[in-house]
Amino acid sequence: MKNLSQISNPYNEDKVISACGLFGMMSLEGRKCSGKDIIRAIANMRVRGNGLGGGFAAYGIYPDYADYYAMHLMFSNKSGKEQTESFLKDNFSIIKDEEIPHQYNPNVFDPPIVWRYFVEPKNVPEQYADDYVVEKVMFINTKIDDSFVFSSGKDMGVFKGVGHPEYIGEYFILEDYNAYIWTAHSRFPTNTQAWWGGAHPFSILDWTVVHNGEVSSYGTNRNFLEMRGYFCTMHTDTEVMAYAVDLLIRKHKLPIDMVAKIMAAPLWTEIEQMPEDERQLDIMLRQIYSGLLINGPFTIVVAHQGEMIGLGDRVRLRPLVAGIKDD
Length: 327
Known about the structure:
By secondary structure, this protein is α+β, with helices and mostly antiparallel strands. The chain has one domain (4-312): Glutamine Phosphoribosylpyrophosphate, subunit 1, domain 1, CATH 3.60.20.10. Helix content is 29%, strand content 24%. The protein contains nine helices and 14 strands. The strands form four sheets. It has a four-stranded antiparallel sheet with strand order 1-10-3-8, covered by helices on one side. Helix 1 packs antiparallel against helix 4 (165-171). The longest helix has 15 residues, at 129-143.
């Protein structure tokens, strides 16, 4: 969405201060469950939302097209759709495309055109396919007016919009989807316009992030990522976190414990007391990845194929509770 600044919030409440509700569940054995369960779970936290945004991420929902990138796109008008489809046809083989199924909901207002494309990169070696997709997603989101890619992974999808999450879930008929990982979020980001693309989860490839908190290091984080090909178009800190996870884990192949030390780094007083090898490692991470240190209170739930990760700020200003039942 090139001209996000022109999007207006019909509620005139862009800075409504409220809490965030987030929820995630995963079957360790890969058993799938209907979207009605995640809708009911996040609806229980309605008091933590503000009605300006809600969304879901689901994994394992496209088994018939699991080998293809499932691109979910929003269009403000038909012109944006036509331009984007021309770009996709030039750069991908489109295996199938269709409107994302949805139904009328009286509590959902002014929805964009929502479409999904199952695509395969043209003439790109498999080892470079993910980078190729990221590059094309960034091009669409920064260069093509009235278009926004909000999901681009394989065998997964993001569904989000303006409204309470239970209404968004009903609008996208999520009870008809079965997934082994579900995540959900119940509020619009504090520092972005109340437009459908700005709701959580934020996603790149099969990485998705839902976030509670407010990050004061957004400018530094954004600059670090833009120098590495990730362009933040939604003006919100959660988008930064999604791109940071992709950069650190997928591209730089760092283990999650190192990623935690980068994004929620120990205090310098703690580093000084560490054993020598650990101390040198932490100093090195702080020096190399200082631009990805996340300042401010936050809790995130990160998901991708086969894994769900919870991470909070170093002094736990935003609580996160985890539990296990059966698998």
